[in-house]
Amino acid sequence: MGIPQPAFYIFKCEQAAPPGMPKPSCVTDDNKGLYQYTAKKLMMEGVMMTAPIVRTSCMNRCAQGPVMLIEPGHTMYVDLTEEKIDRIIAEHIVGGKVVEEYVIAEEFWDEPMSTEAARKLMGK
Ligand code: FES
Is residue 3 in a domain? Predict the structure, then answer.
């Protein structure tokens, strides 16, 4: 028997805009503890081994930040707070049910772009 795979991967955007940059970003002075909060919560719930959290840079949904993406399922959660993270861990990670009210609006998260369409956009 081998080492089991995780059931989930949690990708947390940890991008902070440089001082003076007008563009929004996922990490600000008001929310910079969310990564550690999530990691601690996953440990407290006993699910860190099956739902590791991974720091990422910008996932191009900055105006909806702070954001995190959960795989499998391509589920993008937005406008995160500690309270929302508590529910996401309890209901999605432990319970297996997406918290629909925290998922990004469809207009900002349309169908995946095919590699063919991406290549065409880049003139390939
Ligand atoms: S800074 Fe987080 S999605 Fe861009």
Answer: no
